[in-house]
């Protein structure tokens, strides 16, 4: 499934994986975020830290009547204020995606899958 935009010059199709990769890049630049996490927990409740080529595994993109809805799964650094980091992630993702793609975001849901000590 892809997002389609119609302009006076033609049609633009944006894949959900492209949106997820862009979102992953934005999220990993935020202070306090160690990395993206997989949506599925590994055995014993550990979350897998994703590499840059697999960011789309940690993001769910849904198209709704009100716009796009994103579910973002992250791992945060130990000692950061979780509510502040999550709020900043939501603001930055909404701003960058709306500015870049010119699409309306209805929700950015952030799920903290774990906390890691930053070495």
From TrEMBL:
InterPro entries to which the protein is assigned, alphabetical: Asp23
Pfam families membership: Asp23 (PF03780)
Record-linked PANTHER family: ASP23_GLS24 FAMILY ENVELOPE STRESS RESPONSE PROTEIN, HYPOTHETICAL CYTOSOLIC PROTEIN-RELATED
Sequence similarity: Belongs to the asp23 family.
Protein name: Uncharacterized conserved protein YloU, alkaline shock protein (Asp23) family
Organism: Anaerorhabdus furcosa
């Amino acid at each position: 499934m892809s997002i389609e935009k119609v302009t006076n010059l033609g049609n633009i199709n944006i894949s959900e994986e492209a949106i997820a990769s862009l979102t992953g890049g934005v999220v990993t630049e935020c202070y306090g975020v160690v990395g993206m996490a997989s949506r599925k927990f590994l055995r014993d409740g550990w979350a897998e830290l994703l590499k840059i080529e697999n960011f789309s595994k940690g993001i769910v993109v849904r198209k709704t009547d009100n716009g796009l809805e994103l579910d973002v799964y992250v791992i945060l650094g130990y000692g950061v204020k979780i509510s502040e980091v999550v709020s900043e992630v939501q603001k930055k993702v909404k701003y960058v995606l709306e500015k870049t793609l010119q699409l309306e975001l209805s929700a950015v849901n952030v799920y903290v899958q774990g906390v890691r000590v930053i070495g």
